[in-house]
Amino acid sequence: MKSAFWNIVFAVFFAFLVLAGANLLYGSGLLYHSIPLFDFVLMALAIFRLVRLFCYDIITKFIRDALAPCPKDSFLGTLHALLACPWCAGLWFAFFVVFFYYASPLAWPVILILALAGIASLIQVFANLLGWHAEGKKREVLGAGNSTSTCG
């Protein structure tokens, strides 16, 4: 049960943040019941990019490395597990992106930049896959040409 303690604390804290954030936005009249599709897509791409940034990218590796030696059943060990799990981190980043989307117009340029970086990441991954596929086909063709030639 000790190892689950910090997981429970983080889950309860997350639930509290979501409820408090929604209450704050609702009380301020900033919480809308619908989001334009374009904004929804941009927020999804921004969340995708934040998850990639904190869970996988080299630029934030120092954070993950600093937390890695921490005991798993500690606060920092649980924080490391959170950053190692894209699904877990995605929930937290989704909350922050949505909250700031509603709370401040200053969040819009940040969301846009993150979304554009997310699209660029997807394009790069697609280009890499296409290149790897083409290289594999090229090797197949070259390999097939070498195996059928006979010297006589």
Order of helices and strands: HHHHHH
Task: Provide mean pLDDT, rounded.
Answer: 91
Share of β-strand residues:
under 5%
Shape: flat
Number of distinct beta strands: 0
Unreliable stretches (pLDDT < 50, length at least 5) are none
Question: Can you tell me about this structure?
Answer:
The chain has 152 residues and is mainly α. The chain has one domain (2-146). Helix content is 80%, strand content 0%. The protein contains six helices and no strands. Helix 1 packs parallel to helix 5, helix 2 packs across helix 5 (86-103) and helix 2 crosses helix 6. The radius of gyration is 22 Å and the shape is flat. The termini are far apart. The mean pLDDT is 91.
What are the main properties of this structure?
mainly alpha, 152 residues
Question: In short, what is this structure?
Answer:
With 152 residues, the chain is mainly alpha-helical.
Helix-strand layout with pairing:
Elements lengths: L1 H26 L9 H19 L5 H7 L7 H10 L1 H18 L3 H42 L4
